[in-house]
Amino acid sequence: MERGAAELLEIQDSCKNVRRQSFEKLCLSVIIATNMDSLDDYDYRLPKELIAQYPTATRGESRLLVVNRESGELSHARIADLPSLLSPDDALVINDTRVVPARLRGTRIATGGKWEGLFVEAAETGHWKILSKTRGKIVSGERVQLMDRWGTARFTLTFESKLQGGLWIVTPDSKSNFVEALELVGEVPLPPYIRGGKMVAEDLATYQTVYANEPGAVAAPTAGLHFTNELLGAIAEQGTAICNVTLHVGIGTFRPIEVESLNDHEMHSEWGRLSAAVAETLNAIHSCDLGRIVSVGTTAVRVLETAGTTNGLEEWSGDTNLFIKPGYQFKAVDALLTNFHLPKSSLLVLVRTFGGDDLIKEAYAKAIEMKYRFYSYGDAMLII
Length: 384
Known about the structure:
The structure is a single chain. By secondary structure, this protein is of the alpha+beta class. The protein has 2 domains: about 40-100 and about 205-384, 3-Layer(aba) Sandwich (QueA-like), CATH 3.40.1780.10; about 105-185, QueA-like (Thrombin, subunit H, Beta Barrel). About 25% of the residues lie in helices and about 25% in strands. Strands 2-1-19-18-14-3-12-13-17 form a 9-stranded mixed sheet.
């Protein structure tokens, strides 16, 4: 009895110690999350010359900063080295969304004034949601004549109703579906930090992944721009699974957060999909506890984490407004290939939450020191 009582007391003390350690760990995570709530902490200085204005001369030649979360080591590689950094037991998850030529230009029929806009999405009713930019004030019922890239008039938009944030519901008089219509009049929707948003002919190919399939994005899933068919072939040949998800990247993805506290940020919504077959494949990898789920880009992360549960991934489709910030517990993603992101953006918050705040800040500082190329057409980072 005495021995049993002693053992019981030892177990109780051990449990108290575990509870105390867990409580201390919880308090530390709360402190970290509280400190990381300020948007100012996600700011950094970037020399303008490091913002890539064009992709590399040949797709797949970008540099790759490898960030090891366990050891804290930073090492330098190339995108071409990716097969050697992956295991045959891993799964590489890519976003197969296709960027539509969403930037629109035209003339206001009533005034003759120039007009610019950005296609956001199409409804089953045939209506479009767009952003509108012009001098003066657009009113309901007004029409805009859309021009193609060579200045030829193609079809008109009738403005129906105004929404918040400069958005409008419009009706195109084109009988084509939205993809075909945009192909006639649209331009590549480059972000403003790339040549002021002005496209060149080459952007039609370079601002699109080689595996783009599902039209609907108004911005590219930029981590995927590094891949060639040859690189994907080499990855698949060694046995690494390549799985497709879809997330139609929206206009809010690259916008800076405009509130001082992350807790006050209203996350944009994007449509995505994870098939039952892909969920089954990825769950099998985790159940064997051998391989990793490697997300190509933050957009794939949003799909996987939205579809993730405590029991694994489930088939999913719909809108997600998931905002991954300090305190978030990842359920599905084990490694992340991503580009370098804008200061004060939700993408940077996600990456620092995943990679560890101090380590990713160190990685960004090292990337700037080593003159890596930043943003959509820039180099990449692999967080393992």
